[in-house]
Structures are given as structure tokens and as C-alpha cells.
What we know:
By secondary structure, the chain is an all-alpha fold. The protein has 2 domains: 5-26 and 156-281, Alpha Horseshoe (Serine Threonine Protein Phosphatase 5, Tetratricopeptide repeat); 58-145, no CATH class. The protein has helices at residues 5-24, 58-67, 73-83, 100-115, 118-131, 136-145, 168-178, 182-195, 200-208, 217-223, 226-229, 234-246, 250-262, 268-281.
Amino acid sequence: MVSGQVSRRTLLYLNVAVAAVAVAGIVVGLTLDTRTMPRQHKPFAEKPPVPTGLPAPYGPRIVAAFQSWPVGSIDAMQRLGLEFQGEGCRSKLVEPSPCAGAIVHYYRGIALLFAGYPGDAQTALEMAKRFGRNTVIQGKADVLLHPAFFQPPSGPSYPVFVPIRKNPLLVEGARLQEAGHQVSAAAVYAKAARAAPDDDEAQVAAAVALFDEDNLTPAFSHLGPLVKRFPKSQVVRYYLGLLLAWTAQSDEAVKQFKKTVELGPTTELGKSAIGFLQGLAKPAAG
């Protein structure tokens, strides 16, 4: 087992995330589904939470718009959006923090959601995801854009790979994923996978880091074939189950978690899979 702060945090995150999927199902705080929601203006009854810790010069303007809700809020956020229409984050790895454009359009999307404009909110959140590539905003926007998938209550917005065996590249990739640098993590994991083509953990990590809720094909197309390549690998079965659960494919997820348990019920992954299956068997609250 890899020791250290990163491993402990990611293992705790993994167990909490899986338990949350199993017990709570899909928890949607904000609904974004233009196929089922009416297009007419229908604001939420509650006010959006006021963001904190946003840097100047745009941060105070966002905070003021949310504090005065709903008086002038949407107009203020739309004006901000126009100012940052072409403000994308740099594509270099690693982006230390979300850039102004990503943050502005993310909060503009939230404001539009609460104001009852799901179509406009979707456009704003798509811009936030694009501008916030390789930052935490990429994942946060993706979560709101796909309410049918698992909604993490806290922590990383995407599934994080947790290395079991000691591998510096995989540990570094996990750290990057935790920080929201999904693109950077994918590059590090791909390097590990090239260096060790017969290492099941490195191959799984490379697949997990390709996870994108707009396009599930890359992650699953890389992860699925590993079942045949590594038929006795618990890590392959576990992460296939995790990604299936994350994307609301619960029946298939259960099959993979059962296979995970069969391959070792006393390991960390085996115990986590058992927790998932036990949680799924509990009656839903309420």
C-alpha cells in the first residue's frame, strides 16, 4: 500500500464517493436538463449561495450580484460574461488555478440556473468548462452539466485513481487529479502506462484519467479491454465498476463490484466494493 498524505486522502475520498453513490444515489442540488425542463422563465424559490474567496477585480462583482439577488443579478453577471467572452485559461500544464473567464462563466451559469434559464445556463457552463480546462472548474462545470450522473458532495469532481503499489508517477497523477488538473494527470498516467505496459495499475490509471462526462467513450474504451488483458486484476474490475456507478449504470456496476470482491474481499478495494454492495442493498431514505 502506498503510504503518505495523498494516498490517505484519496482512499478516504474513494470510499466516501462510492458509499455516497450506493446509499444516496444521484443527489442533484441544481437541475440542468433542457430536455425535461420548460424553457420559460421559472426561477428557483431559494437564493443561490454567495461565493467567497474570489479574487479581484471580478470577484467582488460576482459576490455583489449574488448578494443583491435577484435585483440586477442576472444583468450584472451577463455584463461580466461579455467582458470575459474570450478569456480562456492557458493550455500549458499545469494551470495553477482557474482563470478569470472560467470562474466568471461558472458563476454566470449558476446564476442563470437559479433564475430559471436552463438553456442559457448550459451555454455558460460549457464555456466555463472549456475555459477552465485542467482546473477545478472543468470538473465542477461538468457535474452541473450532467445531473443524471453522480454528484460529488465534496472533493474532486471526477473519479480519482488511487495507487496501491508504490509508483511515483501514479502517486503524482493522483495528486494532480485531487487538485483538479485532470489533463495533467492524464499525461502523467499515460507516461506511466507507456513505461510499464504490463502493469495493470498504470493501464487503469491512464484510462480513468480520460474520464469526461461529455464523452465517456475514451475512458471506457481504454478500461473495458483491460478485463481480458488482466482477467485476475482486482483493480481493473474495481475501477470499471466505479466509472459505471458514477455514470448511473448501476446494474453493470454491481456485476463489476461483485467480481472485485471475488478477487479479494479483504483488500482495500475488496472492502470498498463490499461497502458499495451493502449500501446499494439498503432501502432508500424517505
